[in-house]
Specification:
Structural class: alpha/beta
Strand content: 5-15%
Radius of gyration: 17 Å
Mean pLDDT: 95
Order of helices and strands: HEHEHEHEHHHHHHEHEHH
Low-confidence stretches: 1-7
CATH superfamily: Alpha/Beta hydrolase fold, catalytic domain
Number of helices: 13
CATH architecture: 3-Layer(aba) Sandwich
CATH topology: Rossmann fold
Helix content: 40-55%
Oligomer: single chain
Distance between the termini: 17 Å
């Protein structure tokens, strides 16, 4: 590996967005990470705005193992990870299955499957509770969503964003991306692997993550429940609540979100 590749390995920050958004979720964070001396590596996981991309399983642990192999093939052997929503669950399993690779972990707005914590107010009055059961019901979304993507994705995005909302043009781009053929079905697969995900999270309780974790919640979404839900799964968890954000702090409060992430990474991952 040449010196430039070695530097990239040391400073790489893998970014995993969730459902139903795209890597535009990182549009404010990426340049701030670069300015701080890090090398952001946005990744779109199968089913999160694209089709299966060769994935045979949507079990989050399996996706993490697959991603680790792909990153290694690119020469990335040590990196930090920032995961949002389902990307956060995959990020947690990446940290647990490859502790030698993941130097630090940031989880934005995700409570892993099977972790029973209450979302505090005002988030509990804003964050949707309908989409999980709807998405897991066999055949229901397939029958009802086609041609109604604006209502389906739009309802979730608007409600989960809370009072601050999302940029209308970006919201439109998210809906249009998830309208593409095959994306609905692969997105649903993330929800329908629940039994396997529950079993894997139970194992994670037995062998918690060793990487330091920064848990980030939006006050109008999961809030402090992100940190509370991660404490049984990791030895070192610190928490931040973004006061004006819903489910999308990196978009809704980009400056304080980036500042918290960069300060955390500088303390635990480091740019050299």
């Amino acid at each position: 590996m040449d010196p430039l590749d070695s530097r990239r390995d040391v400073t790489a920050v893998v970014l995993l967005h969730g459902w139903p958004v795209t890597d535009q979720h990182w549009r404010f964070l990426v340049p701030r990470l670069r300015d701080a001396g890090f090398d952001p590596v946005p990744v779109t996981l199968p089913g999160l705005g694209i089709g299966p991309d060769g994935a045979a399983s949507f079990r989050k642990r399996d996706l993490a193992v697959r991603l680790r192999e792909e990153l290694a093939a690119q020469g990335l052997t040590r990196f930090a990870v920032v995961g949002h929503d389902w990307g956060g669950t995959v990020a947690a399993f990446l940290a647990s299955t490859a502790p030698e690779a993941v130097t630090a972990l940031v989880i934005e707005e995700e409570i892993l499957p099977g972790i029973d914590v209450s979302i505090p107010t005002p988030g509990s009055t804003h964050y949707p509770d309908w989409h999980g059961p709807f998405n897991r019901a066999p055949g229901l979304a397939e029958a009802l969503v086609a041609g109604r993507e604006d209502a389906y994705y739009g309802a979730f995005l608007r409600q989960s964003a809370g009072p601050a909302g999302l940029d209308p043009a970006v919201l439109r781009s998210y809906i249009d991306t998830y309208r593409a053929p095959g994306v609905l079905e692969t997105g649903l697969a993330h929800y329908r692997s629940r039994a396997d995900d529950l079993a894997d999270v139970a194992q994670l309780r037995v062998a918690p993550m060793s990487a330091p974790v920064l848990a980030m919640g939006g006050r109008y979404a999961m809030g402090s429940a992100v940190a509370e839900g991660l404490r049984p799964l990791a030895a070192d968890v610190s928490g931040v609540v973004l006061e004006e954000s819903g489910h999308y702090p990196a978009e809704q409060e980009p400056e304080p979100t980036a500042r918290a992430i960069i300060e955390f990474l500088q303390g635990h991952h480091g740019a050299s």
